[in-house]
Amino acid sequence: MLSYTAIGIMSGTSLDGLDIVLCEFTYNKQWNFNILKSETFEYSKEWNKTLSNAPNLDGYNLFKLHKTYGQLIGEKANLFLQNINTKIDLIGSHGHTIFHQPEKKLTLQIGDGFEIASITGLTTISDFRSMDVALGGQGAPLVPIGDKLLFSDYDYCLNLGGFANISFEDNNERLAFDICPANIILNFLAGKSGQNYDKNGALGFLGKTNDELLERLNALAYYHKKHPKSLGKEWLDKIFIPIIESSKISVNDKLRTICEHIAQQISIAIKSADHSKTLITGGGAYNKLLIHLIKQKVKSELIIPDKNIIEFKEALIFAFLGVLRLENQINCLASVTGANKDTSAGIIYQS
Known about the structure:
This protein has helices at about 45-55, 60-80, 115-120, 130-135, 145-150, 185-190, 200-205, 210-220, 235-245, 250-270, 290-295, 305-325, 335, and strands at about 1-10, 15-25, 30-40, 90-95, 95-100, 105-110, 125, 155-160, 165-170, 175-180, 275-280, 300-305, 345-350. It is α/β, with parallel strands linked by helices. Strands 3-2-1-4-7-13 form a 6-stranded mixed beta sheet.
């Protein structure tokens, strides 16, 4: 029986902070996991600003940030591991995405693996996306292999993170894609009301759906593309936010309309019978308005798991991607990304 104890580290587009999780993985005919510890280290205002501005840096300062951000990850990992006596086999670190333009064969996640490995003394695997993009793929989503091997009890795995994405089996093949913006745009709008996020969807509940804005959003070309497809912050800034900003309605009405938009796009993605089960994770699982609207529109049974899975599923799966990489097993699926072959992706940095 295979057995690994691994750390997974994730930083999402919502810039909430570093999600770190300690997990046990075992394999005996099938993979199983157990989360031993989880914690989110919120970014300081300075780090939030630095990461937000990173796409505008010149080459020298971007590479410098790649190193210093790797140091931050390593330091937070050490802090997380205080009083942990368990032997750790590896760290799987996603890093923080600065550019994601797969159509130009560009994707960049910063957080130098050498820095993480040297500070923690642990083998570190990172840069999981570049090989897939080089092979003509989207480099995203990466989580579906974990959905397939760790969460096979569910017909659909829906993540309501910075972007909403979904994965599912279709004719014995795993498919997945980014659906639409989610927390990244909801948090952006909540910020205009002086809040980091719309807690429980409270502001959205006060708003009204604006049909004109909703129609403009639903008409965007991305939603008519066939998968594989993925979204990045560049698309959000260039295409999505200008439409939101051009509307003169209130922030609350925008939040309500965005939630309606997200729910409608999810309902298109989940073409399910009544007996299917959908696992919902990510911060959007706490948005009561969004969940209410999704329930109205999909037939599938929606299952919201415990806090550890809601908040740390992606970090868990990046630990798992690291395990698969060390085992030289496939951890990136061409059926999901559109690459010309499956790969065992990620660079291994020995401590």
